[in-house]
Structures are given as structure tokens and as C-alpha cells.
């Protein structure tokens, strides 16, 4: 009986061990057997006709093309205002009036001085005529004649001075009424009724009037490193924070030669014409400016195509897949058991420099299953794509890199391939 019990326990233990082994085997098959082997594919694109644009960016301020600061040439108290902010005015419209009491008093005093001077001149004239007649008849002395002549001349000068003072007082009285010098809109009103304004060497500004808000300008600050590329007539696009989805256009009108130095940073002011037919642009808005300094249209390719260079490993790999690389002969590698049969060593630094395009650029093209390098002449580049002047044709297929696929995951290597050693600056710390 004891033997039967022990036998049952042994059988049960054996079954558990066997079941555990089967489970472990199944898991190993799922984990390792289900993992797909990685594959490498060429990443290609076609040569297309496109444009490459070089731009200069800057910030600026939106201002009216023409605005006038209206002030006063006389001191006084603001008695009446006829306009306010945003008021539409025509040339010659009355904007404000100053208190005229003091100015009228000056006019009256000047008129009295003129009347007195005219009376004195009349008496001096009569005395001169009488003394001159006596002097002509030898009845008056030379001294009395000269005295009468001098008094007559002084009387005439005093009358001229009095008339000049009267004219000045009348002009000052006219300055008490302030008129608009242009037609436009009032941007700023710096005074209120009852406020005293004092005229001195600097005329105080009472109003700021803009001529036409449908035509604005951007005063952009361009860095000294970029100002050499900016020319009059270049196309400009800009945005403002108030309308982030709107792109406004303009033209470079003027490049001011006087530098602006702020915190040791030198900039130059560029004036940009900016039509404002919808009147969305307000004076003082900040504009983010992009100036188109150069543009070229032609066959274009991505910049990454210039940096693609297959390694001996990748060429051998694609050869096994039926894709041939017509490349310069490479040094043969030695057999390495750790890396596997037929594996080529990474290119040396000398060889990499010989293979890497330097002054004379080249790209790799793919025709059917044959890849070969083609020298090219480059034009304008914006950092993302470059214009090709010669060497390629439209719709030609070029290689821009290699693409490693590992199951559902995909790793893209621009300007290189999975076989090429990465430069030291690309290593992660």
C-alpha cells in the first residue's frame, strides 16, 4: 500500500515537471522565434522642379507713412477742444482754441502804440517842414535844422516798430486757434480743456494726426550681419500678434544708413511699404518680418542626399538583394567570426574623407537595380533643399539615406546608413 502511494506521488511530480518544461519551451519560441529579423531598405526620392528662397528675418514696428505732430506757438489755457482720439479731420479744420483774453490785450496795446507813433510822426513832420523852410531862407540855424531832421526820422522809426509789434500781436492771436495741417485721423490728443500749455523753445505737441491709415509702413530693425543682403524692391511678408493667421505683404522701400546701437547690438532700420486696405494694422503693432533676399527656381533635391555615402557593408548587403552599387574599389575586409562571414570593417578616416563629397558635390542615383554616384553643380540652398544646376534630370530617382525596419518599429537614418560609424559629436552622453 505504501509503495502504491509513493508511486502516485512520483508520477504526479513528473507530470508537473514535464508541464513546466513545455510552458518554458513555448515561451521561448514566442519570444525568440517570433522576433522578426531586421531589414534595410533604400530611402529614395525623385528630382522635382521647385523654388528655393533665402530669407532674412527681423522685428519691426508698424507706423503711418506720414504723420504730423500739431503744437502751439503761444502759451495759454485750452478753452475749447473740437476733436478727440480717432476723429476724422480735413485740412484746415479747427482742432482747439486757447483763451484769447491776454492775446487781445496785447493787440489793443500795440494798436495804441501805433496811434501814438502816428501822432508823434505828424508833429515831427510839421516841425521839420517849418524848420526846413526857415533854414532855406537863412532864418534858422544849421543845428536847429539837424535836430528837426533827427526828430522826424526817429518818429518814423517808432511808427515802424509799433506797427511791427501790432502785427506780431495779431499773429499770436491767430495762433490761439489751432487748425489741422493735413487731412487724416487723430492718433493722439495730449491736452484737455482747461489745461495750460506753455510755449518755449520746444513747441508742445497737442495732437498727432496720421494722413492715411490705409497705407502703412513697417520700420524693421535688421541685424548688421544680414543688412548686406537687403535691397530696395525686395518682397516682404510679415505677421502681427493681433492676427496670427493672417500674412501681410510689403515691399522694401528704404534702407536707412544710420546705425542703431542697443546694448552693443548694431541694427539698421529698413522701411517697408505695407498696404492696409482692410485697416487691420494699427500704429505701434509689432511685426515679425521675413524679407525675401534671393530666390531660385529649378530642379531641387533634399539636402540629406548630399550627405549619403554607402559603406562597404551596406553595398555588400544590397548586392545580396540584387542591388548593385557602381562605386570606387574599396579595400577588402578580413573575416571576423564575431561579426560574421563576409562582413567588411568600417571605413578608415582616410578612406571616408576620399569617399565623402567635399568641394565637388555628388549624389547617388538609382536606375532599376543599379546605383551610381553622379557629380552635380549646386545652386541656391535654404538648408532643407538645394537647386541643382547640372548633373540631374527631372523625375530622376536619388538616394537620400537608408531605412532600417525592425518589425513594426522603423528607424530612419538621414544622410547615413545602419552600417556607417557615427561621428563623435553625434554620440549621446
Give a structural overview.
- This protein is α+β, with helices and mostly antiparallel strands and 429 residues long.
- The chain folds into 4 domains: 40-52 and 300-426, no CATH class; 56-65 and 212-295, Efflux pump adaptor protein, beta barrel domain (Elongation Factor Tu (Ef-tu), domain 3, Beta Barrel), CATH 2.40.30; 68-99 and 177-211, RNA polymerase II/Efflux pump adaptor protein, barrel-sandwich hybrid domain (OB fold (Dihydrolipoamide Acetyltransferase, E2P)), CATH 2.40.50; 100-175, Helix Hairpins.
- Helices cover 28% and strands 38% of the residues.
- It contains 5 helices and 22 strands.
- It has helices at 2-33, 101-136, 142-175, 312-320, 349-355, and strands at residues 39-46, 48-64, 67-71, 76-81, 88-89, 94-98, 177-179, 184-189, 196-197, 205-210, 215-223, 235-240, 243-262, 265-275, 286-302, 324-325, 362-367, 370-375, 377-381, 385-390, 397-406, 409-414.
- The strands form 5 sheets. It has a 6-stranded antiparallel β-barrel. Strands 3-10-8-5 form a 4-stranded antiparallel β-sheet, with no helix packed on it.
- α2 runs antiparallel to α3.
Amino acid at each position: 500500500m505504501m509503495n502504491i502511494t509513493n508511486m502516485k506521488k512520483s508520477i504526479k511530480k513528473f507530470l508537473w515537471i514535464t508541464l513546466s518544461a513545455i510552458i518554458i519551451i513555448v515561451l521561448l519560441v514566442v519570444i525568440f522565434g517570433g522576433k522578426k529579423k531586421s531589414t534595410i531598405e533604400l530611402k529614395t526620392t525623385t528630382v522635382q522642379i521647385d523654388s528655393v528662397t533665402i530669407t532674412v528675418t527681423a522685428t519691426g514696428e508698424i507706423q503711418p507713412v506720414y504723420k504730423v505732430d500739431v503744437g502751439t506757438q503761444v502759451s495759454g489755457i485750452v478753452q475749447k477742444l473740437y476733436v478727440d482720439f480717432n476723429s476724422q479731420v480735413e485740412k484746415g479744420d479747427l482742432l482747439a482754441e486757447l483763451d484769447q483774453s491776454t492775446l487781445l490785450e496785447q493787440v489793443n496795446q500795440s494798436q495804441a502804440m501805433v496811434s501814438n507813433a502816428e501822432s508823434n510822426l505828424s508833429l515831427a513832420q510839421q516841425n521839420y517842414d517849418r524848420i526846413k523852410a526857415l533854414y532855406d531862407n537863412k532864418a534858422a540855424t544849421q543845428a536847429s535844422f539837424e535836430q528837426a531832421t533827427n526828430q522826424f526820422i526817429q518818429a518814423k522809426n517808432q511808427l515802424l516798430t509799433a506797427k511791427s509789434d501790432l502785427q506780431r500781436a495779431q499773429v499770436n492771436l491767430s495762433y490761439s486757434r489751432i487748425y489741422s495741417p493735413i487731412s487724416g485721423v487723430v492718433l493722439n490728443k495730449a491736452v484737455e480743456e482747461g489745461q495750460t500749455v506753455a510755449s518755449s523753445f520746444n513747441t508742445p505737441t497737442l495732437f498727432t494726426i496720421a494722413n492715411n491709415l490705409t497705407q502703412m509702413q513697417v520700420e524693421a530693425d535688421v541685424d548688421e550681419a544680414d543688412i548686406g543682403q537687403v535691397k530696395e524692391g525686395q518682397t516682404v511678408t510679415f505677421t502681427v500678434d493681433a492676427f496670427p493667421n493672417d500674412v501681410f505683404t510689403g515691399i522694401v522701400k528704404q534702407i536707412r544708413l544710420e546705425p542703431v546701437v542697443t546694448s552693443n547690438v548694431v541694427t539698421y532700420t529698413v522701411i517697408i511699404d505695407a498696404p492696409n486696405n482692410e485697416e487691420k494694422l494699427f500704429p505701434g503693432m509689432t511685426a515679425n518680418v521675413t524679407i525675401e533676399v534671393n530666390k531660385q527656381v529649378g530642379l531641387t533635391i533634399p539636402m540629406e542626399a548630399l550627405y549619403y555615402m554607402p559603406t562597404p557593408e551596406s553595398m555588400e548587403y544590397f548586392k545580396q538583394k540584387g542591388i548593385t552599387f557602381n562605386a570606387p574599389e574599396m579595400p577588402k575586409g578580413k573575416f571576423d567570426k564575431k561579426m560574421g562571414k563576409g562582413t567588411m570593417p568600417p571605413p578608415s578616416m582616410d578612406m571616408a574623407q576620399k569617399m565623402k563629397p567635399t568641394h565637388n558635390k555628388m549624389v547617388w542615383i538609382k536606375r532599376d537595380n543599379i546605383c551610381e554616384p553622379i557629380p552635380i553643380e549646386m545652386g541656391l540652398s535654404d538648408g532643407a533643399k538645394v537647386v541643382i544646376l547640372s548633373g540631374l534630370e527631372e523625375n530622376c530617382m536619388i538616394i537620400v539615406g537608408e531605412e532600417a525596419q525592425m518589425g513594426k518599429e522603423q528607424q530612419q537614418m538621414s544622410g547615413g546608413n545602419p552600417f556607417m560609424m557615427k561621428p563623435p559629436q553625434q554620440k549621446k552622453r
